[in-house]
Write a structure and sequence with these properties.
alpha+beta; 2 domains; 29% helix; three-stranded antiparallel β-sheet; 9 strands; six-stranded antiparallel β-sheet
Length: 173
């Protein structure tokens, strides 16, 4: 999940009018909501305080921050990751509790994107992710001018889906 901290006019300029508003009814403020579904199936819900402090949240159908940023680069400069120990614990619980009901969560970090270098060697790109994100990432890479061969395949050696995020040694976005 990402936390949004920007002015109301900025989020309205980015998302247009809200899809619906939830009235206070026990909450401190009214909340505006926008929901979008990308062509790849990734779903995003933006919630924003309508009449309170300039804050909100971005919820996604699967907890993959880079997938959100791929579809909505605006979020990179106008929101921040909720990055703490409790968040990793929440993801572990989410995976454990819902993985039977939603197979995507069970395979959250089970696929790796690869590319064929100019020298013919295979190299992994990024870190293990879900199949939906891997497919979307391959499509994005293939759309660039520098043409190389990209594909994804199932990982066989990822023990902990949370720790898998840093297998590449690259900092998280």
């Amino acid at each position: 999940m990402r936390c949004v901290a920007c002015e109301r006019r900025e989020i309205l300029a980015h998302l247009d009018e809200p899809h619906w508003t939830v009235p206070k009814d026990g909450l401190l403020f009214d909340y505006h909501h926008w929901v979008f579904k990308a062509d790849c199936g990734f779903r995003v819900c933006y919630s924003y305080s309508a009449d309170g402090p300039p804050e909100g949240a971005i919820h996604t159908s699967i907890p993959e921050d880079d997938h959100l940023l791929r579809h909505d680069p605006w979020c990179k400069n106008n929101s921040r990751r909720r990055d703490d120990v409790h968040f990793d614990t929440d993801i572990r619980r989410l995976i454990e509790f819902y993985s039977e009901a939603d197979p995507i969560l069970g395979d959250l970090h089970s696929f790796q994107v690869w590319r064929m270098g100019d020298d013919g060697n295979e190299m992994n790109v990024g870190y293990p992710t879900s199949e939906i994100n891997a497919r979307c990432h391959v499509a994005e890479l293939e759309s660039h001018k520098h043409k190389q061969i990209y594909w994804y395949r199932r990982c066989t050696d990822v023990a902990d889906p949370i720790d898998a995020r840093n297998l590449s040694g690259q900092p998280l976005p």
